[in-house]
Write a structure and sequence with these properties.
four-stranded antiparallel beta sheet; 12 strands; globular; alpha+beta; about 220 residues
Length: about 220
Amino acid sequence: MIEILKKVPLFSQLNEEHFNALAQICTKRSFTRSTVLFSEKEVGSVFYMVLSGSVKIFTTSSSGEEKILSICKSGESFGELSLIDGKPRSASAQTLEDSVLLTLTGQNFLDLLRTHFDITLGIMQELSNRLRDTNQQVFDLTFLDARTRVIKSLITMANKHGLRNGSTITIKLVLNFDEISQLAGVQKATLMQVIRDLEEKQILTISSSDFKLDLAKLR
């Protein structure tokens, strides 16, 4: 467990004694694809850290339409907001593939924040980053056209989750086209039109397991 914890960026400043204490309160759990970890508006009781796999964070409208807010991959964490402010979950979380997560109960999470300032600071920085991302999403939806939003979403996914080789970035395809359109904030028909155009120009290559984005041709 300690070797696993050392790979989590949030705990990078801890010493061996802290890791030993943390190992006593963390639980390693495996989840199959499409498992709902928690739902919007329910009471929050667990903090999650991704060891492997991926998790989508999303909201659902009254008509049942989903909007993906973010994708959490290895080393990233989520679920802290309702533990901190005591309010219901502001979004839902669901695994996109078979995933292994570390979990902390709400009380243990809060005790950890009280005793380790470096972890508290890390959480504050993460929340600040998410606020900046939200502000950028509002800007994009207000000022960018649909085509630009699609391209920007693909580039963001590539930079965050892709493996780069020269000017080409390969990203494991864990989102379907419906989910990518949600992430970009466009209709699926618009997404497919942009994707076809990028494929014709050999900027984007899609297979059953991944997609490749050629940044040199994008310019």
